[in-house]
Structures are given as C-alpha cells and as structure tokens.
Design brief:
9% of the residues lie in helices and 52% in strands. It is mainly beta. An eight-stranded antiparallel beta barrel has the order 2-3-4-5-6-7-8-9.
C-alpha cells in the first residue's frame, strides 16, 4: 500500500503477452527515450547535491516494453519497493516483473542501488539487478518522483516510464488487507486481444478471500473462467 492512497481500493495489472512486428515503432521509442535520458543527464548540474530529497521507503510501478531488435516487441510491467538513505544509496529493494517472455519474469527479486540528484532536482538511478537497470527521474514537490528507463542497446532492451511514491511500510503485512475491495485491470490475452476485468472480494486479514465476483470483457475466456 502507498501512503496517501485511498483504502479498500487497488488496481492490478494484467499479464502482458502481446507480440508483434513493430520495428519502426521500436526505433522511434528507443530514439525518443534516448534523447530524454541524454537531456536529463546533461542538464543535471552538481550531481548528488540534492540526494536528501529522496529519503525513506518508496513503492514504484513501471510500464513499458521490451524491444527485440529483430522487430518483435512485448509489453512489460514491474512493481517494487526500496529504501533510500538520502545519501545516494538504495537498500531493501524488492522487485516483481511480468512479461510475455518467461526469462523476463521475476518474483521478489532483491536488489540494491545508487542514485544522484542534481541542483535541478533531476537524477539518475542505477539498480543492481540482472542485466542492469538505469533510470532517469525527476523529483516532485511532494517527495515522490517520476522516471523513465532506457536500457536498450542496438534496439534490444527495455524502455518505459513509471512513478516512485512514498510508502507506508506498516501496510506490508497480511493483516492490513482486510475488508471489502474492488479491483480492475486492462491488458492483453494470449491471442494479443484486449481484455478487461473488474471484480470485488472480501479479505479477512488472515490471507483468506471470500465473496469474490469477477466480470471479464474480451474475445476469449481463460480456462475455468466464465462470464
């Protein structure tokens, strides 16, 4: 749960599975993100002088795509958390990722990292994860941040954007999930068709869910799921 979010309501991200030949789009996306990242890096003056702006526990979300180099691209999503010490170091990092490519899926992947924030409140963050992860971000007045990722070399890698928001670590336990919830998400199914799903359930705070109902709108239904 993220500090400041409304209780008893959350959103889930559908498993992305879209593939397609998008070579021209890949080139355009990689070029745009590269220009933005280069601009942020050049514009950052006195890197590290404002590291204290990012301090405490944060949760983050990311949406983008993996570029295949040969023309194939798939959508990609990630969520996670970390602790920033206000002096350029990240600890207690944990990351979950989802992708159509099995090798790019991860659950509870731990990580550390470093960051530097310049006088213009923009910074660069490096995550110590398999394959590496470099983010360019901008701090907001409320202590949150918006970021982009451009880890694509030769048209192969990941590009996307996301947010970092201050988190309440007391909510990181099963007992915090209690009461009635509504949820919804949109995504793609195994046939690359748009799928939308919404529902509700009751959680007892002990890990059990009852009174669940779900409504699905899409071309095809997953096995075992009825309208």
């Amino acid at each position: 749960m993220i500090a400041g979010s409304q209780p008893n309501q959350f959103h889930l991200t559908a498993r992305p599975t879209r593939r397609g030949k998008m070579s021209k789009l890949n080139v355009l996306l990689v070029t745009c993100f590269a220009l933005v990242l280069a601009s942020a890096t050049r514009a950052q003056s006195n890197p590290g002088v404002n590291d204290a702006e990012l301090k405490g526990d944060y949760a983050f979300t990311f949406n983008g795509m993996t570029t295949g180099g040969g023309g194939a691209s798939t959508v990609f999503a990630a969520v996670g958390r970390f602790t920033a010490d206000g002096a350029g170091n990240l600890t207690n990092g944990e990351l979950d990722t989802n992708s159509a490519q099995p090798q790019q899926r991860a659950t509870a992947l731990t990580f550390t990292g470093t960051y530097a924030i310049g006088a213009d409140h923009r910074g660069v963050m490096n995550l110590n994860i398999p394959g590496g992860g470099t983010l360019a971000f901008a701090m907001m007045a409320n202590g949150n941040a918006q970021f982009i990722e451009i880890d694509a070399t030769g048209g192969i890698g990941e590009v996307g954007s996301g947010t970092m928001e201050k988190a309440d670590t007391t909510a990181y336990n099963t007992a915090a999930i209690a009461g009635d919830y509504a949820f919804g998400f949109t995504g793609l199914d195994g046939f690359n068709d748009r799928t939308m799903l919404a529902g509700r359930f009751t959680a007892n705070g002990l890990g059990a869910i009852t009174d669940g109902q779900v409504f699905l709108l899409g071309r095809s239904l997953p096995p075992g799921l009825t309208p």
